[in-house]
Amino acid sequence: MMKRKKEIIPLFTRELIKENTLEESALLHELIKEDTTHGKKYDVVKRFWDSGYLTVSPDATNRIYNRVFSDVKDKTILWQRRQNLFLKVAASILVLLSTSLVYLLQKDSPLVNTIRYSTAIGETKEIILPDSSKVILNASSILLFPEMFSNDSRDVVLIGEGSFKVSKDINRPFRVETSHLQVEVLGTEFILSAYQEDEMITTYLKEGSVRLNGAFSNLKSCEMKPDEKAILYKGNMQMEVVKAADHNKSWVDGYLVFEQATLKEIVTRLERKFGVELIVLDEELYSYKYSGRFKNETLFEILGFLSVTKPFRFEIQNNTIVMSKQE
Prior knowledge:
Number of helices: 10
Structural class: alpha+beta
Oligomer: single chain
Number of strands: 18
CATH architecture of the largest domain: Sandwich
Strand content: 25-35%
Order of helices and strands: HHHHHHHHEEEEEEEEEEEEEEHEEHEE
Distance between the termini: 56 Å
Helix content: 25-40%
Largest sheet: 13 strands, mixed
CATH class of the largest domain: Mainly Beta
Radius of gyration: 21 Å
């Protein structure tokens, strides 16, 4: 039975893109009949599919594919069958099911009352929520929330990064759901980074208080104080909380801040900000660590500064920037 349950996401995917065989369709309906939870999840997924809401960062597609289908026997066949569409839909389904959004949407409110905001590479967007809370959405991010909050809670879903200034309401806790973490507050200001492709989720509390709860895990709840930063490592689900007063100058104010960040992390953030592909030829460079604060500098000025601190070479090749070890 456990192995059959592992097949649910590829079955969902093939059903949606109409590549399912009669046997696969029969198996899906059998699994739904055996476990009504699968049926509820499929209903939510299909509603998102029909509304055009299923999206995911292309950078995460291959990693998510390996995570979902590592135990599926016909992996080679799946890869060959319209792989781009299949992988995009399958990865999107995993993102959707890995948050608490399924639970939220299984309530009575229909999907037409769910609002979706997204940002492109290098773009930020200010959003006012139904309770007058304010969110600034960073680049390559998605925010989902109901058109009207319920009488007892305010629930939103974040894929990416956002700065939240939450209106106080002692009778309705405000919860942000991500793939691995739930942030719960009454009224406060914080920054949450939860990109699907990143190896960690970070929460910086500017004022007020928040409680962090693990989503679908045994992570112990953690309460934060102002000027603290919590880092949740997805790989082992371990969390550390550190002082981070200097985090006040963040991307929200136009800054790009690195605090002992690896070059691997920096490359990802630069790609999101500038919309340029960076290729690192020598994996050893990924472990290099840098600190720095930038505001109006160009991409080349930032790379130039970093390369002086700990040397590497970089040059433009075919509209991409190639980075290699200094010889």
